[in-house]
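target protein:
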Amino acid sequence: MDQPGLDEREHARALAGLRRINRLSRTVDALWGKIGRLLPDPSGEPLRVLDLACGGGDNAIALARRAHREGRSMVVEGCDMSAVAVACAQSSAARGDISARFFIHDVLRDPLPGVYDVVTCSLFLHHLDEGNAATLFRHMAAAARRLVLVDDLVRSRAGYLLAWFGCRLLSRSPVVHYDGPVSVAAAFRPAEAADLAARAGLRDVSITRHWPQRFLLAGSPR
């Protein structure tokens, strides 16, 4: 899905397939379990949340929708290096009348252009080698005042099989069919990700597992 020159229509089709996968995986429930504890009461200063490599904006939009539904004060933004992904995210937010801002940014090349309470990232870590993963963690830690959250795939045989069958069941996109199993094979093991995060400057790093063959890494900036 990150392949340069990917046809825009095929890219949008792949993002739609990923949206269904994210919904079934209940990624937002895992993120909300950590973020919800930090939310102020409605009269307090809004919690500022940024979702990196946001793709079609699924998680950012779902977080904003849930905060609104529960009457909690949250400002949500998302960024991605792909102009196609950002356009899809903006369109989805507008259709759902969701207040969320999206912008183009390459987090591996440049530090983030702002400071947030929480910085999140989902299904991006497995695309990176150790050097780029360390850069990602450093930039997230520098931009987060309170919490860094990284949700990703567990590298395992069960995860590979789930990705192979699930991607074909939930999407017609050949990009998704290819990307899912290959992503699992390339993913970090949770302990490896935790070690990289700690070496990159995060403290109190913890790992929790959730359905289906995912892990959520949480850490605090120094």
